[in-house]
């Protein structure tokens, strides 16, 4: 095999180009691959390596530091679950904060609640990711021009340290827990989230891990979160473009009595079918149901 245009893209003997996601630390002993139709963009911003390619079967694909962030084929699953789970578990959310989320997919989903929201603030450190999303993933950036949407190009930690505003829902859509992003998965970050959260507020973040491959890490993350929040749960999202086909979400609240597993607001089935492709009130509850062995470890 020979390398072509990007370290993670290899040309096989028949001339096919394949992108391979290999992360020995997180997913030892396995790799995930997508066939490449053509490379659309490759650059290094001040913060990360950014690759966008057109795949043969998954549409356009965004890769940061060698890890797939989203594909046009299945991005809606993650974006919907991480957004609507906290928004529907809250009885009356008004102010939403997104940390990260440069592909703007979470903002798009939060925007589906805009009639009842007062503000949506997104803090993303890398402006280039947003610009590339507008160009190559236009269906994900449909909310960024809305008057209630406030985009801040800044470091999420810095913003949380300085803000005095309290948010009803805080969504952390960060990269995997490697390099600088590892700070998003430590107790100090959970304390910052707690300080910026309203008393009945809800936080959610991708735990970036798979119960089949990283259960000890997931347990460690839950233990860390419980040092700050009395109410912490783990849910899971299924989508084929993430290694192992499954991604975990950590959701927490200051309110120990709030049942995060049950939506406080429910749309009728016709509205759900109009607004969502993955999320529903049934999926909301089902996402928290874990296999017995995983449930035993996490409990």
Automatic annotation (TrEMBL):
Matches recorded under Pfam families: Spermine_synt_N, Spermine_synth
Keywords attached to this entry: Polyamine biosynthesis, Transferase
PROSITE patterns: PABS_1, PABS_2
Ranges for domain PABS: 16-254
Transferase is among the record's keywords: yes
InterPro entries in alphabetical order: PABS, PABS_CS, SAM-dependent_MTases_sf, Spermi_synthase, Spermidine_synt_N, Spermidine_synt_N_sf
Protein's UniProt keywords contain Transferase: yes
GO molecular function: spermidine synthase activity
GO term, biological process aspect, one: spermidine biosynthetic process
GO cellular component terms, semicolon-separated: cytosol
Active site annotation, chain numbering: 173
Domain of life, per lineage: Eukaryota
PANTHER family: SPERMIDINE SYNTHASE, SPERMIDINE/SPERMINE SYNTHASE
Family: Belongs to the spermidine/spermine synthase family.
Protein name: PABS domain-containing protein
Organism: Scheffersomyces spartinae
């Amino acid at each position: 095999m020979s390398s072509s245009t990007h370290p993670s893209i290899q040309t096989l003997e028949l001339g096919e180009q394949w992108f391979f996601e290999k992360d020995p630390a997180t997913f030892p002993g396995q790799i995930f691959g997508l066939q490449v139709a053509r490379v659309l963009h490759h650059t290094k911003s001040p913060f990360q390596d950014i690759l966008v390619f057109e795949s043969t079967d998954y549409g356009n694909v965004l890769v940061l530091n060698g890890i797939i962030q989203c594909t046009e084929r299945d991005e809606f699953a993650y974006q919907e679950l991480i957004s609507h789970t906290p928004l529907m578990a809250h009885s009356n959310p008004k102010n939403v904060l997104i940390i990260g989320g440069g592909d703007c997919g979470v903002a798009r989903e939060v925007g589906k609640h805009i009639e009842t929201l007062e503000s949506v603030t997104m803090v993303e450190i890398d402006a280039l990711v947003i610009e590339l999303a507008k160009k190559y993933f236009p269906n994900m950036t449909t909310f960024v021009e809305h008057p209630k949407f406030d985009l801040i190009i800044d470091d999420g930690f810095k913003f949380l340290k300085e803000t005095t505003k309290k948010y009803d829902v805080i969504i952390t859509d960060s990269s995997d827990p490697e390099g600088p992003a590892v700070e998003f998965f430590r107790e100090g970050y959970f304390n910052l989230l707690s300080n910026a959260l309203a008393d009945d507020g809800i936080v959610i973040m991708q735990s970036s891990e798979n119960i089949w491959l990283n259960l000890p890490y997931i347990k460690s993350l839950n233990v860390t979160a419980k040092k700050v929040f009395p109410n912490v749960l783990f849910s899971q999202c299924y989508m084929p473009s993430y290694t192992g086909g499954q991604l975990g979400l950590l959701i927490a609240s200051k309110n120990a009595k709030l049942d995060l597993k049950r939506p406080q607001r429910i749309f009728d089935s016709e509205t759900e079918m109009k607004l969502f492709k993955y999320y529903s009130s049934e999926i909301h509850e089902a996402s928290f149901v874990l296999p017995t062995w995983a449930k035993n470890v996490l409990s």
